[in-house]
Structures are given as structure tokens and as C-alpha cells.
């Protein structure tokens, strides 16, 4: 991924925050026929499972293992041939995407001064490479599903729990799923949020997004404020 210095967002805390907020990744593999394939799968950090298992709260940054010592975990249906198709000796790529949206030149005050402005697209993305391992273990899958559910339900009241479903149903479901785990070897993160624009243009972008009045625009505006 092309990452100019002013758009680099690869600090550990920012990477973890984006993955937790947008856990659905495109998992890209090179299959054994040398063909690229992508699946869309939500992932959680193994360290988040450890934290939830201990006290129900995600650990602070200072207590977490480094990203390159952590793993990302998910699950797939056994019918998904991903677990058979991936080449064990070739790294996989996980692509997580955060806030994104179109930026109109009409929002820049500098348009009135020189006209030397063009449209652009703001976005956040994290690319993680690593080794993929398939886990054929129903208890591991149940643990992973429980962690993912707890994280996703944190803001819900009441929060749904895996134990709310009948035990025999969950047992049967766990048996038709496979766990997948990616041992992280490389991380890149980019946040292109108008950092290369003067303050007046950034303020104009925020005003333009506010006038849109859409939830999508609000999310993008919040991301721009964080980067400012």
C-alpha cells in the first residue's frame, strides 16, 4: 500500500482501534493454483479474548502484547474451501477498511482563490500480512465466537450471549465451523483524512460533511477531526 509519511497511521493503538471498530476484513489468499481469492470475515485479536476471559474488559495498550506477537482469529463454515485452498507457505493479506468518503472541491475555500483544487477520496485502511493456520477444534471455535460476540455486544443492553441459545444448537453449529488464525508478520496503516490540506480547507470539508446531514458523513467528519 502506498503510504506517504503524512498519511502514515501505523501506531499500535490506532491499528487496534480501527480493527476493533471495523473487524470485517477481506482475507486475500493465493491458492494452490496461483489464483488470488478473497473472503470477507470478521476477526478479533487473540489478546482481546485473554482480556475478556480475565475481567470482561479489553486491556489497555500498555498491557497488550505487541502487534507482531499477537494473532487475529476468526471462523468459517467448513464448506468454505478457503481452508483447503490456501498455500501454507505463502502469507495471506487481511484488509480492514475504516471511515471513507468523497471530498468535493466545492468545500475548499481555496477554490475561490485559485481554482487549483480537485476531488479526492478520504479513507482509513489497515493491511496485515501473516501466516494462516486452520483450527479444527469445536471448543476453540466456541471460544472465538464467544469473544467476538462479547466485543460486538458491548454497547447493547441487554447484551446477547452465546449461552442464550440452546446448548445443543451451539454444539452442532460449532461442529460445522472451522477456526482460522493469522500470526501477524507485517502491518501497514494509512489514514488519508485531509492532513495535507491547510486548516481552512479542512474546516471547509467538515462544514461540507455537516451539510450532507448523513450518518456516513458524520463518521467521516469524526475521523478527520481525530487526524487534525
From TrEMBL:
Annotated Pfam families: FMN_bind_2
UniProt-listed InterPro entries: Split_barrel_FMN-bd, TR_PAI2-type
The organism's place on the tree of life at top rank: Bacteria
Protein name: FMN-binding negative transcriptional regulator
Species name: Allohahella marinimesophila
Species lineage: Bacteria, Pseudomonadati, Pseudomonadota, Gammaproteobacteria, Oceanospirillales
